[in-house]
Recover the amino acids of this structure.
């Protein structure tokens, strides 16, 4: 690979100060550091050797952990389409359908985000952040496959500018960037990201009611939407919603496996757990946060069971864990190390609060069927406050020690 | 017997090139150099000798204008061949040509039983003049102790857990009497408890068996379990306004020898270790000895870095003719990492298992082979970024200290928070692993020193 490195180095003078492309130095640098770990060595004092992992590797590990969700999501998009239209289908056809409509979304997100990142790097004269490797994959996974490309591009750009670059770039953001993008879509273009938008028709658009070829009794509502409006016991309502065209679609097993409508990557709790396993084993994600979000959700749902005054509150607590985007949010969004609480004790509180708020929003807020997005964003804002008290406790222990 | 303190946090960097328990038959160094930069926080050295003068082992070479009376002495006898100065006449080092047989400055001799009758007034001046005082380090700050202060405790760590660290058992074999005498002398100069931190994982060696009036504590865990700062934190943490003195067993032995044999003996055994050393073993040399004899015909490759000390906290030496640091008991030789790595074959996307990481994002199955020895080079393995909090710092600091918050307080010049978050309890070596594991490749130890300097200057 020496020739490739030499080729790079030959171009360097043109990008350095006084060179023809000096304004594009950081683009050059990004390309080179992407291809080659730079030959920089450790300073003469201090740690003379360093851990083999760098930020890029760390980010890549998160992307790898998302791949099960992505692949499953692609297949599921096809599966949902063929089920809705009652057409005969096979595995390859289903996967191909999902691939055909999700790949453009991913490409557009990476391109739109990449342009912003490069632009900021050039103007602000800093290196190009590898953080976008993760964000660019997260955003498509939390959107429906029917999302218009221009919307996702716009949301990506706005989220990076508002949530990240405005705060100083990688490592400095308060809000999770990908969730900010989703929130922008959610509040800016609610028609395309809420309601029955999850299943695509043959040309990749949202299915409109009464469309030709749809199976009898079809409804694109998610499990969360169904239970939110349930007048009968919730499990019966879930059963009744799909009994005429896809029996048992909302059984606990199917919700766990993820063969239900929803955002591209969020439906399968199983795949999210595989991702969580990768993150935890590699030491990249915080098991404290992931576990505490699930725990907080479960405990809150149990509490509601005890206090139940309506059908939704009687929903078995374990259903909350597999419905909607809870698992995906817990594993990939809440555990984002930058926007989460930084202290170990703080991570428990942060996760439990996310779980608690998710259930509260789901059950008591008629406007938003899903609560995980808002819960995480709210706790992102609260995380520094949680840390403040944990740090304060550490300081107090030290002070107390001195006075004893 | 003391109970064992188990430390669950930390990380052992298992490098190739551990020293065998043998002593090489290398010749002693021809020159030695004492470098003021080895003494953290030295104000300004005042030099006593000129080029061409002859000195004995124990003749003062310079003193610190900020701490007058504490002498920094020649480790050997011979001719002062160079008083090396850099920009603005900054003293870089004093080089002494080593005599064939060492001539010592004479100091009063005592027997072991006589030591207990000595008084502080008799002991202290000898320690200050002879050069052994410099072995006493004061916390906070990790600087040479001020003889006019009195600490609340003295701590000695009897083991070293850092990468490729020398085995103290081997290093100090047969020095029991000197060690005991040194402890006796220390108890003369200050009236405070003396704590000895022992390794719970190994048998207590003869030299570190309990002495009267010495409190022993056992620690079990991975690096930094052997760091004296960790021992202090768990036994008698430093509160605001308190001082603790620390010594390496080498210092205690040197003090003991001074009073038993009446000489400043700066000879020492060092471990020459690392993946690039042909035969990693122990060598006899002096404090500040030239490394040329240690590495001659003893290297596997040419593109290497010589590190005085261990690879976590050590100092890069200029070349194979440079000099050991004052406090260092090991010379680590590792490959220089100054080559680019293609991202697919060796770089950040490569599926390689032979590179060491605290994160398991590399070498996912490394836990299957915990004994595996790694060869690490000096590559930074990435680019520097603003702190990305990944939660790993907390996993390698076995103390009730929040490293990220402390470092951020330093970066923000926030004196109040630095103090409240425990900056007085740590020096570079205690956070060295943070620097190693950091994915943002920040110079953690340099940042900490900056903070300590800020606090010291007020």
């Amino acid at each position: 690979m020496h020739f490739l490195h030499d080729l790079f180095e030959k171009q360097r003078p043109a990008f350095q100060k006084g060179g023809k492309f000096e304004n594009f130095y950081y683009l050059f640098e990004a390309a080179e550091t992407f291809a080659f770990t730079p030959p920089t060595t450790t300073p003469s004092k201090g740690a003379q050797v360093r851990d083999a992992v760098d930020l890029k590797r760390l980010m890549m590990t998160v992307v790898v952990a998302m791949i099960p969700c992505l692949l499953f999501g692609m297949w599921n998009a096809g599966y949902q389409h063929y089920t809705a239209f009652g057409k005969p289908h096979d595995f390859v056809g289903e996967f191909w359908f999902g691939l055909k409509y999700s790949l453009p979304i991913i490409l557009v997100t990476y391109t739109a985000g990449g342009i912003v990142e490069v632009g900021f790097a050039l103007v602000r004269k800093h290196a190009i952040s590898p953080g976008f490797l993760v964000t660019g994959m997260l955003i498509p996974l939390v959107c429906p496959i029917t999302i218009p490309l221009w919307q996702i591009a716009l949301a990506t750009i706005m989220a990076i500018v508002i949530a990240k670059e405005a705060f100083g770039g990688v490592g400095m953001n308060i809000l999770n960037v990908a969730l900010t993008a989703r929130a922008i879509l959610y509040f800016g273009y609610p028609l395309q990201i809420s309601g029955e938008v999850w299943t695509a028709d043959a040309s990749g658009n949202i299915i409109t009611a009464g469309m030709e070829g749809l199976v009898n009794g079809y409804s694109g509502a998610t499990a969360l939407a169904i239970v939110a409006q349930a007048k009968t016991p919730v499990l019966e309502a879930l059963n009744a919603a799909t009994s005429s065209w896809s029996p048992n679609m909302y059984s606990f097993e199917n919700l766990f496996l993820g063969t239900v409508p929803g955002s591209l990557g969020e439906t399968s709790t199983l795949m999210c757990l595989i991702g969580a396993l990768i993150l935890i084993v590699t030491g990249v994600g915080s098991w404290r946060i992931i576990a505490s979000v699930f725990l907080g959700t479960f405990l809150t749902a149990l509490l509601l069971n005890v206090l139940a005054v309506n059908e939704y509150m009687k929903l078995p607590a374990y259903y909350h864990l597999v419905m909607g985007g809870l698992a995906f949010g817990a594993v990939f969004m809440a555990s984002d190390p930058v926007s989460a609480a930084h202290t170990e004790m703080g991570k428990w509180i942060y996760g439990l609060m996310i779980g608690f708020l998710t259930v509260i929003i789901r059950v008591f807020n008629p406007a938003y069927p899903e609560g995980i997005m808002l819960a995480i964003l709210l706790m992102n804002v609260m995380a520094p406050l949680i840390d403040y008290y944990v740090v304060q406790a550490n300081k107090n222990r030290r002070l107390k020690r001195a006075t004893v | 017997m003391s109970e064992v303190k188990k430390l669950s946090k930390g990380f052992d960097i298992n490098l190739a090139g551990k020293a065998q328990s043998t002593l090489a038959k290398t010749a002693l160094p021809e020159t030695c150099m004492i470098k003021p930069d080895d003494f953290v926080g030295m104000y300004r050295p005042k030099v006593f000798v000129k080029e061409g003068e002859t000195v004995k082992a124990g003749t003062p070479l310079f003193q610190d204008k900020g701490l007058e009376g504490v002498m920094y002495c020649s480790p050997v006898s011979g001719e002062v061949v160079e008083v090396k100065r850099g920009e603005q006449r900054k003293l870089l080092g004093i080089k002494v040509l080593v005599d064939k047989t060492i001539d010592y400055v004479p100091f009063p001799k005592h027997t072991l039983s006589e030591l207990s009758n000595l008084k502080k007034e008799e002991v202290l001046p000898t320690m200050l003049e002879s050069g052994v005082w410099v072995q006493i380090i004061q916390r906070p700050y990790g600087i040479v102790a001020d003889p006019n202060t009195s600490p609340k405790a003295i701590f000695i760590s009897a083991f070293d857990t850092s990468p490729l660290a020398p085995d103290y058992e081997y290093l100090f074999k047969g020095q029991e009497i000197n060690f005991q005498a040194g402890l006796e002398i220390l108890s003369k100069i200050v009236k405070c408890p003396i704590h000895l931190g022992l390794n719970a994982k190994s048998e207590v060696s003869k030299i570190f068996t309990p002495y009267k009036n010495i409190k022993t504590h056992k620690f079990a865990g991975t690096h930094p379990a052997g760091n004296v700062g960790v021992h202090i934190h768990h036994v008698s943490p430093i509160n605001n306004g308190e001082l603790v003195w620390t010594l390496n067993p080498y210092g205690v032995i040197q003090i003991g020898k001074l009073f038993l044999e009446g000489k400043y003996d700066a000879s020492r055994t060092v471990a020459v270790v690392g993946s690039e050393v042909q035969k990693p073993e122990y060598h006899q040399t002096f404090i500040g000895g030239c490394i040329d004899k240690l590495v001659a015909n003893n290297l596997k490759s040419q593109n290497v870095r010589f590190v005085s000390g261990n690879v976590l906290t050590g100092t890069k030496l200029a070349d194979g003719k440079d000099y050991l640091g004052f406090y260092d008991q090991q010379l680590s030789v590792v490959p220089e990492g100054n080559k680019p790595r293609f991202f697919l074959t060796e770089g950040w996307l490569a599926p390689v298992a032979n590179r060491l990481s605290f994160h398991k994002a590399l070498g996912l199955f490394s836990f299957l082979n915990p004994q595996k020895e790694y060869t690490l080079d000096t590559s930074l393995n990435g680019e520097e970024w603003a702190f990305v909090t990944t939660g790993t710092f907390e996993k390698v600091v076995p103390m009730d200290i929040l490293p990220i918050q402390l470092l951020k307080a330093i970066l923000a010049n926030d004196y109040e928070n630095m103090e409240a978050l425990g900056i007085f309890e740590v020096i570079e070596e205690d956070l060295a692993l943070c620097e190693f594991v950091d994915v943002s490749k920040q110079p953690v130890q340099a940042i900490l020193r900056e903070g300590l300097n800020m606090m010291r200057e007020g």
